[in-house]
Amino acid sequence: xxxxxxxxxxxxxxxxxxxxxxxxxxxxxxxxxxxxxxxxxxxxxxxxxxxxxxxxxxxxxxxxxxxxxxxxxxxxxxxxxxxxxxxxxxxxxxxxxxxxxxxxxxxxxxxxxxxxxxxxxxxxxxxxxxxxxxxxxxxxxxxxxxxxxxxxxxxxxxxxxxxxxxxxxxxxxxxxxxxxxxxxxxxxxxxxxxxxxxxxxxxxxxxxxxxxxxxxxxxxxxxxxxxxxxxxxxxxxxxxxxxxxxxxxxxxxxxxxxxxxxxxxxxxxxxxxxxxxxxxxxxxxxxxxxxxxxxxxxxxxxxxxxxxxxxxxxxxxxxxxxxxxxxxxxxxxxxxxxxxxxxxxxxxxxxxxxxxxxxxxxxxxxxxxxxxxxxxxxxxxxxxxxxxxxxxxxxxxxxxxxxxxxxxxxxxxxxxxxxxxxxxxxxxxxxxxxxxxxxxxxxxxxxxxxxxxxxxxxxxxxxxxxxxxxxxxxxxxxxxxxxxxxxxxxxxxxxxxxxxxxxxxxxxxxxxxxxxxxxxxxxxxxxxxxxxxxxxxxxxxxxxxxxxxxxxxxxxxxxxxxxxxxxxxxxxxxxxxxxxxxxxxxxxxxxxxxxxxxxxxxxxxxxxxxxxxxxxxxxxxxxxxxx
Length: 627
Fold this sequence. Notes:
By secondary structure, this protein is an alpha/beta fold. The chain is 37% helix and 15% strand. It has a six-stranded parallel beta sheet, with helices on both faces. Strands 11-10-9-12-13-14 form a six-stranded parallel beta sheet, with helices on both faces. Strands 16-15-17-18-20-19 form a six-stranded parallel beta sheet, with helices on both faces.
């Protein structure tokens, strides 16, 4: 490894300056991306002579950080000495991946910046997956890593890895700190970059000798981010054109992505929807941004979305995309997606606009400002007598909702239905709880059969699809929201990747609740093998049914948790109720469910949304003339 060249550093700086993406949930417009960056200081400590490590910890305190997730090691060890006396709570995880996902879950649940810490080499590289996950889902996270001493950089020293170079494509920005004097400024810039514009992960790599060197800590620092100017307010001309199109459309749809949640724009979204009467679809990352129970909500679009949401987008004549990115899981085969639709695309990240689908009206701005200004412009249009009758459109969509509701068949072999388990979990725990999902069939069922009425109650790995996300992310969410019930809905495959963090939860007093949907297999892979590989089940049987290896109840108890098991429908409610009564320890329920259940509806990968299947062998029937 070699030191970063000026060209490399310039490239990194350009990438940060060009990243102007959906604003985070913060308290003020200024904090979300003012023209002059403001240090997000909570405390103003007095100057002091300290080590670089002391400066790091004092900077975290001044930034208002209340918790970090991490594991000490040689290169980062100097930072752990002043952390011992700090007001910042450190949670000792069992794997660095757990630290990263916990920081993400904390950030997603609270709207604050999540912080994780690791040492150099393998400690830092174990953060790569959660960093990439946070990057794909636009989560405000700061990862602090130790690095070998400056004279050893580039010598293949013990536990050396170029983590700055490794994470260059998956961070919003990253830093290699060169002197102890710059630590306060770099930390302040990292938090500002992570939480403003489109949120994202920022890495701060600090050599061990920098942490050990003496310096004077002074706060607040002056930020040096020339060119970083996230555009918050949209251009008035585009807003007026969008409002004109909305007033004249006969088959419009509001396509809502996670950017609306990150901008804190959910109340405005509801006002806009009710003012216009336009149907709403919310992506996997936006569940809870618009109440599932609202009569204008068509559900989730995409590969496993509702028939009404998929076809609403497909047959729309106007799509108003708010903080969404037209990803492949929503569009299906891109060149056949919504062929008759005019597209209004609003996003704080200009790089997203037109990236996948041409935008007829591009709007760069923070979703909250965009929506507020759209409300004003639509009100002007309506007061001038402009507006379409959407009655026929709603008649068609309501017909689809009635004919093709979300549902499931009970297993023919009498085994426990996973959909029933998840549906009852949502009904018993209620809309106030936070639900955190792993990746796979259980994730899709949790998105379909739990009703999300409030923002920030659904956390999942959407863009990267990271198995092992749920347990540590639930831990982070519970730390951030200690008075809220937090359920992780996990699969038996995902659970075995990161369940060691339950030991952390047990020792740290973090009473998360885990529902393991145990179908004995890598369920989503098995579903694809059923549908596309002639039922040749190659390497998807995990042995958790046939051999009960591991026994999840015994494993839970070994990790300091309460372990429960449920194998039939009659016991589902009382098992969930028993878990709800336990609030002084983590709880794991092993729900032993059938292995043949599938996720429907489904748009097969690489096919058009027109080819959506309502169930196996069942295509929805449509009158094309009506649509």
